From TrEMBL:
<feature type="transmembrane region" description="Helical">
    <location>
        <begin position="182"/>
        <end position="202"/>
    </location>
</feature>
<feature type="transmembrane region" description="Helical">
    <location>
        <begin position="238"/>
        <end position="257"/>
    </location>
</feature>
<feature type="signal peptide">
    <location>
        <begin position="1"/>
        <end position="32"/>
    </location>
</feature>
<protein>
    <submittedName>
        <fullName>Formate dehydrogenase subunit gamma</fullName>
        <ecNumber>1.17.1.9</ecNumber>
    </submittedName>
</protein>
<keyword id="KW-0249">Electron transport</keyword>
<keyword id="KW-0479">Metal-binding</keyword>
<feature type="domain" description="Cytochrome b561 bacterial/Ni-hydrogenase">
    <location>
        <begin position="130"/>
        <end position="308"/>
    </location>
</feature>
<keyword id="KW-0813">Transport</keyword>
<dbReference type="InterPro" id="IPR006471">
    <property type="entry name" value="Formate_DH_gsu"/>
</dbReference>
<feature type="region of interest" description="Disordered">
    <location>
        <begin position="333"/>
        <end position="353"/>
    </location>
</feature>
<keyword id="KW-1003">Cell membrane</keyword>
<keyword id="KW-0732">Signal</keyword>
<feature type="transmembrane region" description="Helical">
    <location>
        <begin position="133"/>
        <end position="158"/>
    </location>
</feature>
<feature type="transmembrane region" description="Helical">
    <location>
        <begin position="91"/>
        <end position="112"/>
    </location>
</feature>
<keyword id="KW-0408">Iron</keyword>
<dbReference type="Pfam" id="PF01292">
    <property type="entry name" value="Ni_hydr_CYTB"/>
</dbReference>
<keyword id="KW-0472">Membrane</keyword>
C-alpha cells in the first residue's frame, strides 16, 4: 500500500485552524446549553416561570396556555413542546455538532498520518466503464442537492447560535428566510431522486460473504494485500444502506414537516423534527468521509464518477472480483479518446454500471 504525505506544514496549519474552529463552535454550543433553559421560551412568551408550568401541568391555565391535544386549543405553552425543546437543545444540537466536527477532524488527522492512497501498480492506460451517463447524472444531482440541504440544514440548526451574533438580526433573518426556502423546496426533489438512484444501484449493493473479510482488513489498511470486493466494496455498501434506511427516514420526516396540512398533529410534527435532525446530522457526518475517500483520499476514484471510466490498475486493486468479470471489456485510452472526439456518446463498451 503506497501512501504519501504532501505539504505537511500546510496540512498542520490546516489542522490547527480546524481545531481552533472546532473549539470555538463547541464553546459557543456549550455556553448556549449552560444558559438559562427557560430563556428561549421566556423570550417567546414572557412570564413563563415555575408557577406557570405548575398551572399548565395541573390544567389551571387559561385558553392561551392550555395543554390540550385539540387542534384549535393546542397553544403555545405545553409540556409536550417543552420536552421536544429540551431534546433538541440539550441532546440533538450539541451531539450533532460533535459528530460533524469530529468527522472533519478525523479526516484531517487521517490525511496527516496516512496520506493519500496511491495505486500500488502503474496505470495500464486501459479503461473500464464503471458508471453510465445516467447514473453519473443522477449521482451528481443528488450529491449537489445533498450538499445544499446539509448547508441549509446546519444553518437552521446552528445559525441562531453562531451567525445571529455575528451578522445581527436583519442580515440573519434574511439569511434564514432564504435558507428555509431552499431547504423546503429542494428537500422533496432530493427525496424523489435519491429513491430512483437507490433503486438503480440496488443490485450492486446486496451484502456478500466477502464483505466481512473487507471489514476485517479495514478496507486494505490492515495486513498485506487488498481484500476481495465486487462492484461495490463493504464500505460503499454501508453508505448505500445508510442512505436506504436513515436517508429514507430523513426524507419521510421531511415530508411530514414540509406538508403540515394532512392531519398530522403537533406531537407528530415534533417527533418528525427530532428524527429528521438526528438522521440528517448523522448522514452529514458520514458523507464527509464518503466525499474524502471518493476525491482526494484515493487516487483514481473521482475519475470513475466524472468520466465514467477507471484504469485497469484501479479496478484490479479496489474491486478485483468485478475486474475479473469485465477485464475483457478494457479499452485503450487513445481509442476511447478517438471515440469521444468522433461521437456524442461516451460508452463504446458494454455498460458496467
Amino acid at each position: 500500500m503506497s501512501m504519501s504525505i504532501t505539504h505537511p506544514g500546510a496540512a498542520r496549519r490546516l489542522l490547527t485552524l480546524l481545531v481552533l474552529l472546532t473549539g470555538l463552535v463547541l464553546s459557543q454550543l456549550a455556553l448556549a446549553q449552560q444558559a438559562d433553559p427557560g430563556r428561549e421560551a421566556a423570550f417567546a412568551v414572557p412570564a413563563v416561570d415555575a408557577e406557570l408550568w405548575r398551572q399548565v401541568k395541573e390544567g389551571e391555565t387559561g385558553p392561551n396556555y392550555r395543554d390540550s391535544r385539540a387542534e384549535s386549543t393546542y397553544n403555545l405553552v405545553n409540556t409536550s413542546g417543552e420536552t421536544w425543546r429540551q431534546i433538541r437543545e440539550r441532546w440533538v444540537s450539541p451531539f450533532g455538532a460533535i459528530a460533524v466536527l469530529g468527522m472533519m477532524a478525523a479526516i484531517v488527522l487521517f490525511y496527516l498520518m496516512v496520506g493519500r492512497k496511491h495505486l500500488d501498480e502503474p496505470r495500464t492506460g486501459r479503461k473500464l466503464l464503471r458508471w453510465s451517463l445516467v447514473v453519473r447524472s443522477l449521482h451528481w444531482t443528488v450529491a449537489t442537492l445533498f450538499i445544499l440541504l446539509a448547508i441549509t440544514g446546519l444553518n437552521l440548526a446552528y445559525g441562531k447560535t453562531l451567525l445571529r451574533p455575528l451578522f445581527g438580526d436583519g442580515a440573519w433573518s434574511a439569511m434564514m428566510s432564504g435558507t428555509k426556502l431552499i431547504h423546503n423546496y429542494l428537500g422533496p426533489l432530493f427525496g424523489i431522486l435519491l429513491v430512483i438512484l437507490l433503486l438503480r444501484l440496488l443490485s450492486h449493493n446486496i451484502p456478500k460473504a466477502h464483505d466481512l473479510q473487507w471489514f476485517a482488513k479495514g478496507g486494505g489498511l490492515v495486513g498485506k494485500g487488498h481484500p476481495d470486493a465486487g462492484f461495490a466494496n463493504g464500505g460503499e455498501k454501508v453508505w448505500y444502506w445508510l442512505l436506504a434506511t436513515a436517508g429514507l427516514a430523513v426524507i419521510a420526516s421531511g415530508f411530514v414537516l414540509d406538508f403540515p396540512n394532512y392531519g398530522q398533529g403537533r406531537d407528530t410534527m415534533q417527533w418528525a423534527g427530532i428524527i429528521h435532525a438526528v438522521g440528517a446530522l448523522g448522514l452529514t457526518a458520514v458523507a464527509l468521509g464518503h466525499i474524502y475517500i471518493g476525491t482526494v483520499g484515493t487516487e483514481g476514484s473521482l475519475e470513475g464518477m466524472t468520466t465514467g471510466y477507471v484504469d485497469e490498475s484501479w479496478a484490479k486493486e479496489h474491486h478485483n472480483l468485478w475486474y475479473d468479470e469485465v477485464k475483457d471489456q478494457a479499452i485503450p485510452e487513445d481509442q476511447l479518446a478517438e471515440h469521444r472526439q468522433g461521437s456524442q456518446g461516451d460508452e463504446p463498451a458494454p455498460r458496467s454500471g
